[in-house]
Amino acid sequence: MLFLNKDPELAKAARRIVEEELQLETLSIVGWRDVPTNEGVLGEIALSSLPRIEQIFVNAPAGWRPRDMERRLFIARRRIEKRLQEDKDFYVCSLSNLVNIYKGLCMPADLPRFYLDLADLRLESAICLFHQRFSTNTVPRWPLAQPFRYLAHNGEINTITGNRQWARARTYKFQTR
Question: Relative to the CA of 166, which of 15, 77, 86, 98 has its CA 20 to 30 Å away?
Answer without folding.
Answer: 98
